[in-house]
Amino acid sequence: MSAQVEPELVDQLIKLYCDWRSQCWAVRSAYAQFTAAPAEDRTLAYATYRAALDREEAAAGVYAEQLTLVASRATTDSRWTSLLA
Fold it and tell me: What's the predicted TM-score (pTM) here?
């Protein structure tokens, strides 16, 4: 037996994954700017880095929720369960 996952759910999953990965790159960029910042700018650079981490964490949470939803709809489909193991 194979579960059918609505294409819209998968499309949203892909979008949220891309959003999360974009936030990951923003964290990398903010960290690089923080580590390169002169001493007088480090407080602001660190705050920017922390804000980027918060956005990445939020994006990861939304992505994880969608992944859980898709997984719950596809638990009987071996193509999905192997990816989620």
Answer: 0.80
